[in-house]
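Input sequence (207 aa), recorded before submission:
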Amino acid sequence: PPQYTLFAKNYVQNGEFDPFDDTRRSVFLKSSVTVVSLVVFGTAGIGILQSNLVGLLFSLAALVCFWLFMRRVAGQAAGLLFLFLAAFNYNLLFYGRRPFLEHSLAFFAFLAAVIIMYARRNWLMVLAGASLAVGIFFGKAIGLVLLFPFLCLFVYRYLFNREDLGRSRVTRPVLFAAGFLVVTVIWFFMTYLPSQAQVSGYYGEQA
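Predicted structure, token format:
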């Protein structure tokens, strides 16, 4: 999908992200895939291989994060079983090497889940909330459906996790929401306001 890495390619080649002033794809321009593509293209050159490397980096990082999550929730054996099954999954093998925004969403969402499960300090919940918001607003908007699973995760930890005691059971979700809100506000002023019609049209298609 060249539309996701096109802006980084333009910048490395011409010094401009959008030389044709094509605001229809402003959501693609202001995405985490563009940021990683800049790094990859700037260090390894421009090409199909480098473009696919962007998707591969996100995919592998997402797999590692989900393995860490499964390891914490269900144990070492379940985590290894997940990696074994993922190694033979056709969709992951075929699409995991392409720079789709979904891979960015998966990485940041799983990273948020890992922070929630492993973090001992409450303030790290801000980073977890921010990570999920980055995956949604600077990744793929369909990730809004993940808000419900994360709500269930916090409810589960509130009811059954003995590590979250006292005020931490309330403080952690509040800090998570604060981190999510901060990134949402940044996205609103950075992406939505400058191109309201185009962004609204894009999200309308996603719905």
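Checked by second reader. The radius of gyration is 18 Å.
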